[in-house]
Amino acid sequence: QSLAYAKEARIKPLPNSVLQSDSTWRHYLATLDEQIVGWVSSIQTSTGATWCANFFVREAYRRQGIGSALLAQMLRDDRRQGVSHSILLSSHTGAHVYPKLGYQQIGTLLILAPKKRA
C-alpha cells in the first residue's frame, strides 16, 4: 500500500526505512473497498514529541468520522509509546476542527513572501 499511498497523497514513494516497525514515522491509512480514502502520519521528533503531518480525508468521505478515527488511533499509539505532545499546523478551517479532536491552539504562524515586483 506504500505505492498506492504515495500516488494518492501525491508524494514520492516512502523509503523502506520509514516503513519499519522501529521507524520514527508512523503512517495510518483509512481504506474502504480497498480504496484509500484518508491518511495521516506521526513523526517522532528529537524532543520526544510527535509531528502530525499529511492529514487528509477525501472530500466525499468527510464528516463520517474517518478523520477522527485516524487521529484518535494515532494519538493512542503516541501515548502507548510515551509521547506526551503532538503538534500540527492547521489551515483556518482545520483550526475549527482540531479542538474537537483533542488539540488546542498554542500559537499563530504567519507566513510571509516577498511582494511581486512590477
Description:
This protein is of the alpha+beta class and 118 residues long. Helices cover 23% and strands 24% of the residues. It has three helices and four strands, in the order αβββαβα. It has a four-stranded mixed β-sheet, with helices on both faces. The longest helix has 15 residues.
Protein structure class: alpha+beta
Q: What is the CA–CA distance across the termini? A: 47 Å
Instruction: Tell me the major beta sheet.
Output: 4 strands, mixed
Helix content: 10-25%
- Rg over CA atoms: 16 Å
Mean pLDDT: 81
Strand order of the largest sheet: 1-2-3-4
Order of helices and strands: HEEEHEH
> Tell me, what's the shape?
globular
Poorly predicted tracts of residues: none
Q: How much strand? A: 15-25%
Tally of strands: 4
Count of alpha/pi helices: 3
Give me some keywords for this one.
single chain, 118 residues, alpha+beta, 4-stranded mixed β-sheet, 3 helices, 24% strand, globular
A few lines on this structure:
With 118 residues, this protein is α+β, with helices and mostly antiparallel strands.
Helices, strands, pairings?
Elements: H1 2-9, E1 25-32, E2 35-44, E3 50-57, H2 66-80, E4 86-87, H3 94-97
Parallel strand pairs: 3-4
Antiparallel strand pairs: 1-2, 2-3
